[in-house]
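User: quick one, fold this
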Amino acid sequence: MNSKIKLKGALFFLALASLLTFSCGQKDTQSENEAVEAESEENPNMVELTSAQYEASGIATGGPEMKSLSGTLKVNGFVDVPPENLYSITTQMGGIVKSVSVLQGSTVGKGKVIAVLENQDYVLMQQDYLESSSQLELAETEYQRQLELSKENINAQKILQQAKAQRQTMLARTNALRQRLKLINIDANTLNSGNIRSTMNIYAPASGYITKVNINVGKFVAPNDVMMELVSSNSLHIELKVFEKDVSKLAVGQQVRFILNNETEERTAKIVLVGKEVGPDKTVTVHCIASDNLGNLIPNTYLRAFIETGSNKVTALPETGVVDYLGKKYIFVEKSEQKGGAGDEKAPKTTRMHTFEMLEVTTGLQEAGYVEVKLPEGIDTAAIVKTGAYDVLSKMKNSEEEE
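Assistant:
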């Protein structure tokens, strides 16, 4: 009987201890939740992203930049070739294309053979030159002979004059044929009866690349037909179209920032010439020389440019780093510390958190993809979100709605 009483007492005390433990645990959990809520209430502008969310949003951080936003003109343009660097390859004497050694886009060096033409007239011209050269030699000998006889009064002055005239005629004919051979790229100094040929080489007039090929093997090329076009890539420049009303803001030497089509890299150039004629579209042509070599670019490549007409530089961030929320402007600054999802430093990468703080800023000029900002003092300027600020804002507002 006593044993039963003791057993019941022990069970009673055990149940009482379990109840007390559960109650304490419930209070501890409640205290922790209250502490978390209190911390959230104290920092309503804080938001956390997991590494997976961070990477998916494409967030990029960094410092502000100094930009000349005041007076920046946004214009369009293209990569252009000066007339002296664009070559139309023609020939003074036509022929049938025997071979073509380049394609459109091929890079060539000055003096490289790019095509070969064939024509029987080339043979006749070389024959005429050799015959004329021989006759000139004979006429020169006869003139010298008559000159010596004239000194001794043996021959008549008329005969000497005839010899001199014949010599001059043959000299003019031979020099003319020499120049004609030069036009078809045949060196008269190396020509003899044993190396007459029926072909003519077409050489690249400058180093660059071929932009057009208008011939093929077997095609007849008439004199002055454009066989190919070649661009010398050493002097490509930028041509911009500026509206008439903005021309007064331009000056030689002003800096230009431009971005090529399908690229994100920003390049620089300087204005070297402002046109003096207004086109039908009410624009004036402005020529610029790029700071970097544009040798790998194709003429007429489209670009967007920003002409800096002002000299005052301001602190600016990309538009993707400034958010507009409830009529105010904000930025996000990433905190240096990262933590695991359960306070464990060895937590998996996907559960590690990135903490951001939303700060209000004052903005100014907004041009060319940048916004002038006045940053709060004491912040880590190297950790400002420059890309993906709206993604961070969206995460913050979604978290608030879930709460």
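User: anything notable?
Assistant: The first strand starts at residue 46 and ends at 50.
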